[in-house]
Amino acid sequence: MRIETYFIPVPIETRIAVIIDVLRATSMACALFEAGISELVMVPTVEEALEWKKKGYLAAGERGALKIKGFDLDNSPTELTKQEVLSKVRGRSVVMTTTNGTRAVNEAKASLKILACLNNLPSVVKHLKALNPKKISIICAGTQMRISMEDVYCAGLLVNTLRDEITFKADMDDASHLAMLVARHLTLKDLKETEHAKRLASKGFEADLTHAFRVGTSSVVPLADRANVFHTSSKM
Q1: Is pLDDT above 70 for 188?
Q2: Dist CA 7 CA 84 (whole Å)
Q3: Closest among 88, 27, 93, 2 to 54, alpha carbons compared
Q4: Of the chain's two ends, which shows fewer C-beta atoms within 10 Å, N or C?
């Protein structure tokens, strides 16, 4: 298995792309599917999201970490713990646009796209192990085209776990080795000191940090083809 890691979004062509945006797009995607949505479309711009909203989709997302005017939902996974929000989203289709995560999803050209975060990391590993691909491209969303430590940490955990799970030696690029070293030496407590985490905390999203930094709390594996329309693995 060949594993390649990218610390910021790049326009690559690949068979399988695993996209990571721990704070908060891929964590939110998992929370939405856990809440019972039927599908999730990820678009790069607010204008595109509003076009999907006209078709009856609920619109979720943020700009500058804050809810977009006219949208139904924020980009906050803990918002979905409220009963009135759960009842609104269950069974619905959702379109999402965020500052970094949805851009990363749209930047990659892949036959299969998988959304990963700390919440669903063990389930993503299990799914990849079942696929047994020859190559995996891990793409971190970053923040405004700069490296985000929490995404690199998650990528490193993914690489490290894959190495432990597969029965043959993985061939890794240098970025994958670096990510693995980051995951080995940082703790989840360290992640709360990252730039992005501090920014979210300053805007009142401490609960989202606690939620996003939990490992293995979700069994959801959002999957999509090039159209960027995601469903859970059970529906693919």
Answers
A1: yes
A2: 37
A3: 93
A4: C
| Residues across the chain | 236
Q: Which residues pair with 6 in a beta bridge?
A: 139
Which residue carries 């299990």 as its tokens?
Answer: 126
Look up the CATH architecture of domain 2-224: Alpha-Beta Complex (3.90)
pLDDT in tens, 89-136: 999 999 999 999 999 999 999 999 999 999 999 999 999 999 999 999
Segment 167-179 shows an average pLDDT of 86
| 34-80 pLDDT per residue, tens | 999 999 999 999 999 999 999 999 999 999 999 999 999 999 999 99
Residues 217/104, Cβ–Cβ less than 8 Å: no
- What angle do helix axes 195-202 and 149-165 make, rounded to 10 degrees? 130
CB 78 within 8 A of CB 27: no
C-alpha gyration radius of the chain: 16
DSSP type of residue 73: B
**Domain definitions of the chain by residue range:** 2-224
Cα-based distances in Å from 141 to 62, 69, 148, 170 = 15, 23, 8, 23
